[in-house]
Design a protein that fits this description.
Blueprint: H1 8-19, H2 27-51, H3 56-67, E1 73-74, H4 76-83, H5 87-99, E2 103-108, E3 111-119, H6 121-141, H7 147-161
Helix pairs in contact: 2-6, 3-6, 4-5
Length: about 170
Amino acid sequence: MTEDPKDEVDRLIAAWRSERPDLDVEPLQVLSRVSRLAKHLDRARRASFAEHNLEPWEFDVLTALRRAGKPYELSPGALLKATLVTSGTMTNRIDRLAQAGLVRRRPDPEDRRGVLVSLTDTGLARVDAAFADLLRREHALLAGLGPTDQRTLSSLLRTLLAPFDT
């Protein structure tokens, strides 16, 4: 059986154990690695979005519309819930995406005062390409784990995150 490779977290834990043997630094084993992985994921996402001329916030709105299924449209209120931003921020984002030709607004036939936001063909093509590229990069980040280990890690992370998502 081979020993696990050493990483930067192992080095910082060893230093803390030496400097502060009175503290239990065991949480760093998981959480420092999660934090470092999040930074690598953020870089991969930003690179993927930039390659497709999208900002992270644009990708968030476009993917919310894409996940809605045909006709790829939602009310601004539904977009608020999907992206967790304020109504003023969402209005600004929709305006900017509409100016870029990625979304369009139309009156809501169910509510005369409401509007619906939908992907344009350009928006659909851009978000589909960016998402495929993002998944390619995310697969590469996980290449060191086999399918069983990925499922195990996913399950453990779900257990940790579930209390925060209620």
